[in-house]
Structure formats: structure tokens, C-alpha cells
């Protein structure tokens, strides 16, 4: 079978469409930054490469600290004007921006395929969730902002690369709808062109968006610690998040810090194995490069033989590879569960962690081969990682206590409920968790002891959309919780002495979920 790139989907095709759709933001030789209401050819563009096959793509135009300072100053000026704009005018502009993005939906999705390796269906879902979610806020925002005012300064967003639209752009649009100017740093590892196109469409409609690129350590003093900011919103790992948390705590600033946690799926006194097979298969969406992925299964030892049969049936049916490779030019794009990891370095890091865990006693119960992938002839496959599962990773391994952010599962066997809970709480807090158990009474007894913001009974939990709330417990979250009304409350000012639901240095307040 000879595979080829689907005609019309090459990177050059996508970039040329960007130049035609938003020539103010895309030049033939580089992408621009946007601040102060103007697109700027500033910053130092660095090379970019697609995780799909190593193709050279547009790289971020990195500002230095002084350049970022000018950008923030421009956002502060925009905020002073925007925060006084009547809500109906803000709604009209945000609505127009959403519909403009909808008109370019397929191009935004294609950019996500090239820049961060999402299969076509997953990329389209990322765009659609953003737009549909903001439409919901447009219908609900009047009651949400009643008695509340915008923040005293703009919101600064520093987000990971995995969900540029449904997490980052969605948050930016809602933050603007609530009356704030918005700053965003493009993720270092991917999403530049997608975010730039979406931003260009938004600023045409009058939205006060600032979009800049640069290194996190270089820009952090400005985008995190700048005294004119009203709120810092961060999505990323615990090490970087801890530095942000220290900075915002010292300043007493409003903050939303979503950090990683080891989300666990417990299996205890359970027997619906066909359902679990389907759920395990679905858990590999986007190669588990999601904040709500489940990379750890904690299994009752006496059920392991049945669990293993269900697990292997799921992972044996996974399809991965190049999301744009087809056999015939008229074929639809392939239905894949995942493509590459975000880059070759991450794939090598994960492979090294797996090899080291096995050398120290972890048992490989499944290791697929890249030969099973769906690839173009001779393409670079250095960013791909085949599904892998290890039984009992050694405590010394990062796979024992941290999120792998790739299609590598670990399985831990336990004999008692106390062991089950200890294993599920290994990372001192998580965003989501699930307990598969037949009896409701068992779930209601065990679930309060699981340190996760949301715990599912016989079903996975996700970040959620619209009115579903989202947060984390323990070290997985710092600051205000979000989702539904809470997202608007996090970026607006309410009554004096208001205590926002969230996980703060001096208190934790959980909403009803």
C-alpha cells in the first residue's frame, strides 16, 4: 500500500491560505506579533518543525523582555478603554469573532494537525469546542456579570500547546466578553499559526487581544509578575507552575494555575469488562496528551486476569500514524486515534523512561511497534511513540508518580481498599479520577478519599464544557476554579471580601460538582 499526502493539505497550502486570509498577520517569510492594536514584525523568528514528519513550519517570533514589556503596556491601555464598553457591544464583537473563526474552521483545524500533530477529527473537535463553548457564554453572560466588574488590569495567559483553541482561545474570548483586555503567549512547542489566525480574526472585530511569543523564563517577569496585570492564567506542568505560583502569591494577584496530576482509574469489585474495553480504547485519544488523560490504572489483584484481557483488547485495536496520509487522493483523511507526540525530544524522553523502568523491574505487558503505524514512505517518525503498558513501575521511575503525557500506561496491583486509595493518590492531587466498581455504596464510600477534583463512577471525567466546573486538588491546581459561572467570576470583581471557589494559599473552597 503506497501512502501519499492528501492533496491540498500540505503545510505550504495551509500557510498560503493563512497569508490570504490574514495578510496583516502572516508574511511570506514569518508570522507577526500583535500588541497595542497593531501587528508588528518584531521579535526573532526561530525555526519550527512539524511533529508529523519533520516538515519545516513557521516558528515563533520571540520577543525579549523589553519587547514584552511594551506589549503589556499596550494591553493595559486597551484594558482601560475596553472595561468601560457596554456588555451588549462586547457581546456583538465576540459573537462576530466566533462566527469569523467558524468560517475558517477547517483551516484552523488543519493548522492544528501540522503544528501539534492532532488527527483531523480531534483537531476539528478542538476548534468546535472552542466556538460552541463561547456561544454558550454569549447566551449566559448577562446573568454571570450581574453585580460584577472587570478586573483592574488585563488577563495574562500562559498555556500549554495541546489545546490552543478549546482551552486557550476559548478562555481568551470569555475573558474579553467579561470586560478584560487579554494577553497570551504562544506556547513554545506549537500552535503559533493557529492562534495567530484566530487572533487576527478576533482583532478585526475589535477585540483587545495581545499575542506574543518568547521564552517563558525571559518573559515571566513581565507576563506573570508585571504589576499592571489583573490576573494570571497558567496551564502547564508542576515545575513551571510552582514558579508562577510563588510569584503571584507574593503579589497577592488573582490567578488560575492548572498543573499536572497523575489521574488514576481504579478497578475494584467490578465486572463490566466490555464497557471498560471501550473506555480504555477511548482514553488514548490524542495519545493521552491531555490534562484529563488516565495514564494509571490501579487494579484489584484478584481481578487482574480479567482486566488484562479487557485492556489488551482495547490497545490492540488502536490506530496511529500520519494524520494526512492517504492511499488514494480521493480518500478521506484516516480515522486515527492519535498521531505523533509533540516533538521527537518528548518521544525519546518517554522511550528512555520506559526502558529505565523496565530495567529496574517494571514488567512490560504491552509494547506495540511503530511498524504498525500509518505512515508516508520514508517519512521522519522520530516524534511517534507506539502504545505501551507497564505493570508495577518501580518507585524510582518518573512513570510511578508523574504524568507521562504520551500513550504509556502504568498498572499497579493492590489487595486492599487502603492500598487502592494510596495508589490513586500517589501524585498528591489530580484533576480527575474514576472508580470502576459495581456497587454504588462502594463508590460513595471510596470516592471522597480520592484526591481529585472530579471522580467518575464507571465513566471517565473530563475538563467539560459550558456549565461543567473544572479544577484540581492538592498540587494539581492553584488559584480560582473555572468552568461555567466560575470562569467569569475568576476574571471579574465581585462583592467586597468575596471568597472565590478555588485552591488558594490560605483556603480551599470547593463548589458543588
From TrEMBL:
Residues 44-485 form the Aldehyde dehydrogenase domain. Keywords: Oxidoreductase. Gene3D superfamilies: Aldehyde Dehydrogenase, Chain A, domain 1 (3.40.605.10), Aldehyde Dehydrogenase, Chain A, domain 2 (3.40.309.10). It comes from the Bacteria. GO terms for molecular function: oxidoreductase activity, acting on the aldehyde or oxo group of donors, NAD or NADP as acceptor. Pfam families: Aldedh. This is Aldehyde dehydrogenase.
Amino acid at each position: 500500500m503506497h501512502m501519499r499526502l492528501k492533496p491540498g493539505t500540505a503545510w505550504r497550502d495551509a500557510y498560503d491560505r493563512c497569508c490570504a486570509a490574514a495578510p496583516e498577520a502572516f508574511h511570506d517569510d514569518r508570522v507577526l506579533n500583535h500588541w497595542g492594536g497593531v501587528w508588528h514584525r518584531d521579535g526573532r523568528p526561530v525555526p519550527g518543525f512539524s511533529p508529523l514528519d519533520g516538515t519545516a513550519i513557521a516558528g515563533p517570533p520571540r520577543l525579549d523582555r523589553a519587547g514584552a514589556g511594551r506589549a503589556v503596556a499596550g494591553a493595559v491601555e486597551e484594558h482601560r478603554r475596553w472595561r468601560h464598553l457596554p456588555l451588549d457591544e462586547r457581546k456583538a464583537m465576540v459573537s462576530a469573532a466566533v462566527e469569523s473563526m467558524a468560517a475558517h474552521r477547517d483551516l484552523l483545524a488543519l493548522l492544528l494537525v501540522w503544528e501539534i500533530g492532532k488527527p483531523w477529527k480531534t483537531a476539528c473537535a478542538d476548534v468546535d469546542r472552542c466556538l460552541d463553548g463561547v456561544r454558550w457564554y454569549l447566551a449566559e453572560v448577562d446573568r454571570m456579570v450581574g453585580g460584577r466588574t472587570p478586573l483592574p488590569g488585563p488577563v495574562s495567559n500562559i498555556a500549554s500547546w495541546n489545546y490552543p483553541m478549546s482551552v486557550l482561545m476559548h478562555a481568551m474570548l470569555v475573558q474579553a466578553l467579561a470586560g478584560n483586555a487579554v494577553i497570551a503567549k504562544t506556547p513554545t512547542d506549537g500552535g503559533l499559526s493557529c492562534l495567530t489566525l484566530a487572533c487576527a480574526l478576533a482583532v478585526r472585530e475589535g477585540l483587545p487581544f495581545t499575542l506574543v511569543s518568547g521564552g517563558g523564563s525571559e518573559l515571566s517577569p513581565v507576563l506573570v509578575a508585571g504589576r499592571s496585570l489583573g490576573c494570571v492564567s497558567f496551564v502547564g506542568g508542576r515545575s513551571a507552575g510552582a514558579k508562577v505560583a510563588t510569584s503571584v502569591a507574593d503579589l497577592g494577584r488573582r490567578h488560575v494555575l492548572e498543573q499536572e496530576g497523575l489521574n488514576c482509574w481504579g478497578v475494584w469489585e467490578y465486572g463490566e469488562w466490555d464497557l471498560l474495553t471501550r473506555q480504555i480504547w477511548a482514553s488514548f485519544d490524542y495519545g493521552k496528551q491531555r490534562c484529563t488523560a488516565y495514564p494509571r490504572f490501579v487494579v484489584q489483584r484478584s481481578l487482574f486476569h480479567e482486566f488484562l484481557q479487557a485492556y489488551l483488547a482495547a490497545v490492540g485495536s488502536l490506530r496511529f500514524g500520519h494524520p494526512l496520509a492517504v492511499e488514494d487522493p480521493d480518500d478521506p483523511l484516516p480515522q486515527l486515534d492519535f498521531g505523533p507526540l509533540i516533538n521527537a525530544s518528548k518521544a525519546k524522553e518517554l522511550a528512555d523512561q520506559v526502558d529505565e523502568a523496565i530495567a529496574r523491574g517494571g514488567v512490560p505487558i504491552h509494547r506495540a511497534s511503530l511498524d504498525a503505524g500509518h505512515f508516508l514512505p520514508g517519512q521522519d517518525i522520530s516524534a511517534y511513540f507506539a502504545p505501551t503498558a507497564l505493570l508495577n513501575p518501580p518507585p524510582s521511575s518518573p512513570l510511578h508518580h508523574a504524568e507521562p503525557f504520551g500513550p504509556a500506561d502504568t498498572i499497579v496491583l493492590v489487595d486492599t481498599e487502603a492500598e487502592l486509595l494510596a495508589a490513586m493518590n500517589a501524585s498528591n492531587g489530580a484533576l480527575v479520577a474514576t472508580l470502576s466498581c459495581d456497587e454504588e455504596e462502594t463508590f460513595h464510600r471510596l470516592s471522597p478519599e480520592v484526591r481529585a477534583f472530579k471522580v467518575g463512577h464507571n465513566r471517565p471525567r473530563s475538563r467539560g464544557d459550558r456549565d461543567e466546573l473544572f479544577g484540581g486538588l492538592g498540587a494539581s491546581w492553584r488559584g480560582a476554579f473555572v468552568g461555567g459561572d466560575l470562569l467569569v467570576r475568576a476574571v471579574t470583581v465581585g462583592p467586597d471580601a468575596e471568597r472565590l471557589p478555588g485552591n488558594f494559599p490560605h483556603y480551599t473552597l470547593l463548589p458543588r460538582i
